[in-house]
Amino acid sequence: MSEHLVRGRGTGSPATGATPVPRPPGLLALPSYLASHVARLGHEALVDAVGRHGLRLPHFATLTALADFGPLPQHVMADRLGFQRSHLGGYLDAVEERGLVRRERDRADRRRQLVALTEEGADLQRRVRLVAEASQDVFLAVLAPDERETLTTLLRRVLDASEQSS
Predict the structure, then answer these.
(1) What share of the chain is helix, strand, coil (3-state, %, to 5)?
(2) Cα–Cα–Cα angle for 22, 48, 46, nearest 5°?
(3) What is the pTM for the complete model shown?
(4) Is there a contact between 36 and 97 (Cβ–Cβ < 8 Å)?
């Protein structure tokens, strides 16, 4: 049986030889405990990868939503990303200032604005997506490709069920 370890606070990182301490087995038996800690590791890797391109994760998420869905009204984009609508405006301002998105009146309903990727935004999103995917490959290197696919499938199933019950 393998011993599950955690690096002690203030003792350095795994790369610096931090002193490992055992995690409580009672917590390791809880999938939500495991998922939250594993998610933190993956989130850190993703934030670092996206940050190397001068983006924060919400900026990348915004560009990716537009790449996946095409032009969207701001409120629809906020809902699809799970962002508070009031926060989305600031994220859009930042990427619009960089020329990555543009806001334009919706021809079907002149009262609302659509957000669309610019050519520069689409190009950056494609490049950062590849870096983001590579960061996840490094983060999940301990798993075989079929195990990564299984993990993603299972996590999507839990997420989808949660959203359907909401």
Answers:
(1) 65, 10, 25
(2) 75
(3) 0.80
(4) no
